[in-house]
Specification:
The chain contains no helices and 11 strands. It is mostly beta strands. The strands form 2 sheets. Strands 2, 4, 5, 6, 9, 10 and 11 form a 7-stranded mixed sheet that branches. The N and C termini lie far apart (40 Å).
Length: 128
């Protein structure tokens, strides 16, 4: 059974950094492209970042580009999201998700419907 578990959320101040991790089990992690999304209550899930299965391509949402970095270590079945220069508007629950389709190398990462497995999320709160 596929499981994705996020770690690393917390409460920080404006300008701080935080690193999220997503550990996968029950899947051939290296065969799947992955993504990070975030959501605040009452709003749609927002694309944060995506990475292809071999780390060859990375994509970012406009709100985080230049501040966040996505990476992965397939040997550890883990994906990361390094978040720098955090702002109060980054406050959300962050989710990792598996992009459907093995060895996906296209550029379509932003739609939540393109993902077939999700973690339960980890809360990030940035105070001013």
């Amino acid at each position: 059974q596929v499981q994705l578990v996020e770690f690393g959320g917390g409460s920080v101040q404006t300008g701080d950094s935080l690193r999220l991790s997503c550990v996968g089990s029950g899947l051939i992690f290296s065969a799947y492209s992955m993504g990070w999304f975030r959501q605040v209550p009452g709003k749609e899930r927002e694309f944060v970042a995506g990475i292809t299965w071999g780390s060859g391509r990375k994509y970012y949402g406009s709100a985080v580009e230049g501040r966040f970095t996505i990476s992965r270590d397939n040997a550890k079945n883990t994906m990361y999201l390094e978040m720098n220069s955090l702002k109060p508007e980054d406050t959300a629950k962050y989710y990792c998700a598996r992009r459907e389709g093995t060895y996906y190398s296209g550029a379509s990462f932003k739609g939540p419907l393109d993902y077939d497995y999700w973690g339960h999320g980890t809360q990030v709160t940035v105070s001013s």
